[in-house]
Design brief:
The protein contains seven helices and no strands. Helix content is 46%, strand content 0%. It is mainly alpha-helical.
């Protein structure tokens, strides 16, 4: 995708997000079909650039499992879970963060560092792994062609981060985690 087209798409997504259209309150996720019977995970990474990895503790692993469960609940494929987990790795290292005082980025909370003031939900909802994942996935589903985009572009279109390329570094670990936990 050429640079002008990508910047145009990201600019439009940013305007939609700012207007509260893109990531507003969730009502539609309740209508999504449950994931069909489990099948072997087949997520593959199309890795861009150097990759990062962290060792996960029990809480972080539980959050991976919660993201995968919410992705299945939304009826989305492994690729959506990979994008979600990579996003949460970048935003919070898979820790369900509350308010961090002076270290907080605005009013960002939870696994995806979503903001109540931007329509992602209440602080209680945003710090619920299922709700925050379903909110992220609702935004992802609104991105035309997200399934075929580089991970970092799909995540950035939803998140509108000040560091748009940062998500790419987590693709390999996110893919490995989905492959490890999708069928469990």
């Amino acid at each position: 995708m050429n640079t002008i087209l990508r910047k145009s798409i990201l600019g439009i997504a940013g305007l939609a997000f700012t207007g509260g259209v893109f990531a507003g309150p969730i009502a539609a996720h309740a209508d999504t079909p449950a994931h069909a019977a489990a099948k072997p995970a087949t997520a593959t990474a199309s890795v861009q650039g150097e990759q990062s990895t962290i060792a996960l503790n029990g809480e972080q692993t539980a959050n991976v499992k919660a993201i995968i469960a919410a992705t299945k609940k939304a009826g989305l494929p492994e690729r959506a879970a990979v994008i979600s987990i990579a996003t949460a790795l970048q935003e919070s290292k898979l820790e369900n963060l509350g308010h961090l005082g002076d270290r907080n980025d605005h009013d960002s909370l939870g696994l995806f560092q979503q903001r109540p003031s931007s329509g992602w939900g209440t602080p209680e909802q945003i710090t619920d792994p299922e709700h925050s994942t379903l909110a992220f996935l609702k935004g992802l589903k609104q991105v035309d062609g997200w399934q075929d985009m580089p991970l970092t572009d799909a995540a950035q279109t939803v998140q509108v981060s000040a560091y748009p390329d940062a998500y790419a570094q987590w693709e390999k670990q996110a893919t490995d985690l989905v492959n490890q936990h999708w069928t469990k």
